[in-house]
Structures are given as structure tokens and as C-alpha cells.
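Hey,

Quick one before I head out. I ran the complex with NDP overnight. Inputs first:
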Amino acid sequence: MPNSSTPQLPSPGSKILLTGASGFIAVHVAAQLLKDRFSVVGSVRTVAKGDYLKNLFKGKPFSYVIVEDIGKPDAFDEAVKGVEGVVHTASPFHWNAASLEELTDPAINGTVGILKSVAKNGSSVRRVVITSSCASVEGPFSGRPPPYTLTEDDWNLTSVPMCERDGDQANKIVMYCASKVLAERAAWKFMEDTKPAFDLTVINPPFVFGPILHQVETEESLNQSVGVFHSVVKGTKTEEDLPGPMGSWVDVRDVAFVHSKSLLVPEAGNQRFIVSAGEFCVQDWTDFLHANHPSVPNIPQGQPGGGEEVCDPAKVAHSSGDKAARVLGVQYISKETCWTDMYDSIKAKGF
Ligand code: NDP
């Protein structure tokens, strides 16, 4: 029997609001939520994006609502009514913002906005799950010499000050990282200040790769992370790009799994979860392409097989995904499966 301190969770089969449902990660989250027998209301910006998803999930309990701009006040006031859980993935993820505000306005206002809407109109909501990032855990150019292991106790302390110092001239990746730090901090502050009836779980993935299910018409409009892999497949990398670790990574299906399980596992309340399968480098991808798709042109050789040493956790910054494995039960998908399915999905689009 649950005792009075056991949090109430969304009931089986209940309705979950999934924001930014048209995104790379969110479509997989929708698929996992449906697999876990929830019904899903996705927020999207356009009817065309909503109809694409309705068609993708034909026969399943999926519907959509239009929320054109998550940064607008009260944007989710209607959408939260009658749902028992919320998964908030929507946030700009790209490395070409002209200003920090271009990212922070939707990132912070969207995050705090949905929490406010739930507090105001979402009386049936038990738990909100927010997609943050490992960018909130550690920033690029932090100056901290590897090796080190990052856990949920760590915060990126460098990206926000760098943006304050450099303004619109700040490094674009740092700008994105700052938007994730500020949005996640604002979420926890809201919870601390208002102590609402629902609880919060935050998911912190590093680079997310894997098959694309979302609507992508042109290769230029691929989402940011898969776009990095695609740039290698297109032969834009040289020998000089190969050495060195790129960071931690995880398969998009594992990210989706932990989002959905966060609505099912009581202990996930008021927790952050890094979801990370380990480290990767561009050499991993070039080795994969040479071995499996040798006709792809302009792929540098580098040092075949050298990726393992480059990514040795004893030598690099390492994001630990152990807590998500322990509490949420994720069993991380391998690099080989991830790269294979990602490559095949891109090729299926003709890119
Ligand atoms: P996508 O760009 O594919 O998805 C972003 C989603 O957010 C899209 O549905 C987009 O809508 C929506 N969105 C962005 N800005 C607005 C806005 N102002 N109003 C309404 N909707 C908006 O990226 P991902 O799927 O990769 O990212 C999803 C989440 O995961 C983000 O929070 C990102 O920061 C986080 N993340 C991603 C990682 C990765 O490697 N992919 C790693 C770690 C965290 P539309 O499709 O209409 O543009």
C-alpha cells in the first residue's frame, strides 16, 4: 500500500501533454508513452506538423493542440487541462542564434510558463518531466582538466558568465548551453518558491543520436545533433577533425524510455537524471562508415579503431548515466545499433 508520502503518479492510460511533439526527441517520447499505454496530446506549432504525427501514430490514442510560441505568456493554459502528466521537451536547440535572448526567451519562458499553467489550470497533473540537457551539468570550455565524472550534483557554472561577458558575440554553442542552464534553474526555483501540488523530474541527456521519425523535408532542416552526424556522412570532415573526444552521447530511444518511465516510477520525483551511454568521437563514425558503407565518398581514415582509446573514461570528461539505469531501468543501446539505425533513417529520407 502506498503511504501518504508516496507521490501520486499519472494513472494507467491517462492523458499526457507532450510539448514540442514535432521534434527529434519528442516523436520518440510520444512513441514510448503510447507503448506504455498512455494517451498523448502533443503540442505543435502548425496543423501540418500535427497531421504528420496523427498519421504516424494512426490507430493510437494520439491527438494534438496548436501552441505557436511556447515563450508567450499563458501559452499552455488550455493545453494542461485534463492531463495527468506533462513532458516538456520544446526548446530551441541550434547553434546559430543571433542573440542569447533568441534562445532564452522561449527556453526560460516556455519552461516557467508551462509550470505556471499547470499550477493554475492543471489540477489533475501529478508530475511534470522537463527535458534539460547535460549542457546544464557542464559547459564547454569549462577549463576543468579531464578526467572527471559528472553526476546529477554538478552544474554548468561557466556558460552563463561567458554569455554575460561576451553578449551577442558569445560562442553559439555556449549560448545554447546557457539557455539550458537558465531554463532548468528557473524550473527548480519555481518548484522551491511555489511548492505546487505536482512534482518535477528533469532529464539531462548529452548528445542524442539515433533514427529520425520526425518530419524533415530537407537535409538542411535536420535537427542539430543528427545534423552533426550527417555532416560526416556528407564528407565534410578532414583528418584534422578526427582526433579528440566529442563528449558523451545517448540513443534517442533511451532518452524516450526515461522520459516515459519518469511518469511511472515514484522515486523519480524531484530528481535530475543524466541519461548517457558513454563517450564518442568522430573516429567512431568514420570507422562505422568505412566498415558498413565503404562507397560513401570523402570519409577520412584517421586511426581506425582508435576511438576506444580516445573515449577511455579514464582520460575524458565522462557523464555518468548510472542513476538513470538504476532508478529508471534504462539499458543503454550500443553505438553500433545507434549509428546503424541513424544512418539508415537518414538514407531513407534521401539525404
Ligand atoms: P528539435 O529541434 O528537433 O525539437 C525542438 C522542438 O521544440 C521542436 O518541436 C520545435 O518546434 C519546438 N520549439 C522550439 N522553439 C519553440 C517555440 N518558440 N515555440 C514552440 N515550439 C518550439 O530538437 P531536439 O528534439 O533535439 O531537442 C528537444 C529537447 O531536447 C530540447 O529541449 C533540447 O534542448 C533537448 N536536448 C537535445 C539534445 C540533442 O542532442 N538532440 C541533447 C540534450 C538536450 P518546431 O518543430 O516547430 O520547430
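The chain has a mean pLDDT of 95.

Talk tomorrow,
K.
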